[in-house]
Amino acid sequence: MIPIYYFASLVSKISAPFLDQTLKTLSSNERINNFLKRLETKRLRKIDNPKRILIIPDINIGDAIITQSFISPLRNFFPDMEISYVYQQKTYPLIKANPDIDRHFPLFRSLGYPSKRDCKGLKNIIERYDFDIIFNFCPYFSTNNFKSANSSVIYPIRFIANIIRAYDSDSNKAHIVFQLNRFANELIEEFPSNTKSKTQPRENFPSNCLYATQQLCTKTRKIMAKLKINPYAKKILFNPDTTSQYTFIPFKFQLELLKGILSHKKLTLLLNCGYIFKGIEKKLLNEIPSTLREKIVVIPRDIPIDVYAALIDNSDLFITGDTGPLHIAAARKYIVNSDARFENSTAIIGIFGATSAKIYGYDSFSPEYFPAAQDAPSKVFESNPPCKNLTCIDKIFKNCPEVRCFDGLESEQIVSYTHNYLSQIS
């Protein structure tokens, strides 16, 4: 089986509207869907009680976080099975305490696309451990990457088709967290050891979670004191960075947004540094009036990712484009083996350009969307330029002569929503 990215690169020169319609047509074809399901069932029914499984998400930070929602149903159904997880090493501090994972392989070092080193490391893991099943959700790995495996490999083709079909429907949730959990339950039904009724409805879909230890609380307090962040003040954490020019909120838009938000009287704004769009925080600061700049605290680039998650949790509102930190903010956060607890009351604003908020965003106000796992509202602001379609999700193969992804979006709407929310909370 060729990797999905190879197919995408071949058809990337085809007109996007044509490809968009083709993907939707193929995904809604019941014969193709049933054929793919039979292939999965054939592999799964060879295994009665799997002892070891390997789960491979896509290689980015957000993927490592959201694919945990695929793990929990498997753990519930196979409590004695050993679950291994290969994922982005930068997320290890947020995942290492997950009680549903037995073996952690924080292997991937690249972002966007696996390197030769990533592929070699995966090959070594597969050869070292005798897995019964491998669930591969990374579209950049093909059968060549699993030649040395003596295991059944489940690829994400039908899973992707499920998302596209739900995306094209007004009544189904297309969100990737929801679909991952649903897909896991569908696969569980095909195991020979599953004697439960296959017509039994499954309505509870848990959200993705993050786990930390008690030491994080102490570490976070020290860093907040060093940065002179008042833990009891009203705070907004603003992330100006994303991984692609097609999801990056335009600079002028960000500047207007920050000026409007900072006009709120009592407010501290925590500002991320740019990792992909380096220096974006400095450019913003240079254009913001000094009277408003006094309300801003810049978060250092080298801050640990678990402390970053704790800072989000200590904030009243988190604002970002479509990128990994969005999923960190949306996840339910737990401290293991301790009476200490996270607040889990951060409101979230996701600002979407090329990618679909219905698949990746969080919104509490529409039944088509999936809410964040916070005791606070989540809200999506999404542009809809005439050129936007399903193919915009795959940003790697996009080569638009002009980036129009955020056309039509107005900062005033977001500023108004932000001020209203801050006025409502105590």
Explained architecture:
The chain is α/β, with parallel strands linked by helices. The protein folds into two domains: 4-206, Glycogen Phosphorylase B (Rossmann fold, 3-Layer(aba) Sandwich); 211-424, 3-Layer(aba) Sandwich (Rossmann fold), CATH 3.40.50.2000. The protein contains 17 helices and 13 strands. It has helices spanning 4-11, 16-27, 30-44, 61-66, 68-77, 92-95, 116-128, 157-167, 176-188, 215-226, 251-262, 280-287, 290-293, 305-313, 324-330, 357-360, 411-424, and strands at residues 52-56, 82-88, 103-108, 133-136, 152-154, 209-212, 235-238, 268-271, 296-298, 317-321, 332-335, 347-352, 378-382. Strands 9-8-7-10-12-13 form a six-stranded parallel β-sheet, with helices on both faces. The chain has a five-stranded parallel β-sheet with strand order 3-2-1-4-5, sandwiched between helices. A two-stranded parallel sheet has the order 6-11. The chain starts with a helix and ends with a helix. Residues 4-13 and 197-203 have low confidence and may be disordered.
Topology:
Layout lengths: L3 H8 L4 H12 L2 H15 L7 E5 L4 H6 L1 H10 L4 E7 L3 H4 L7 E6 L7 H13 L4 E4 L15 E3 L2 H11 L8 H13 L20 E4 L2 H12 L8 E4 L12 H12 L5 E4 L8 H8 L2 H4 L2 E3 L6 H9 L3 E5 L2 H7 L1 E4 L11 E6 L4 H4 L17 E5 L28 H14 L2
Brief write-up:
The protein is α/β, with parallel strands linked by helices.
The helix/strand order is HHHEHHEHEHEEHHEHEHEHHEHEHEEHEH
Average residue-wise pLDDT: 87
Tally of individual domains: 2
Main sheet attributes: strand count, strand direction, barrel closure:
6 strands, parallel
Radius of gyration: 22 Å
Supply the CATH architecture of the largest domain: 3-Layer(aba) Sandwich
Low-confidence residue ranges: 4-13, 197-203
> In which range does the helix fraction lie?
25-40%
Structural class: alpha/beta
- Sheet-strand content, in percent, reads 5-15%
Largest sheet strand order: 9-8-7-10-12-13
Question: What sort of overall outline do the alpha carbons produce when their principal axes are compared?
Answer: globular
What name does the CATH topology of the largest domain carry? Rossmann fold
Report the span from N to C terminus. Answer: 55 Å
Could you give me the name of the CATH homologous superfamily of the largest domain? Glycogen Phosphorylase B
Q: How many alpha or pi helices? A: 17
Number of strands: 13
Highest-level CATH class of the largest domain: Alpha Beta
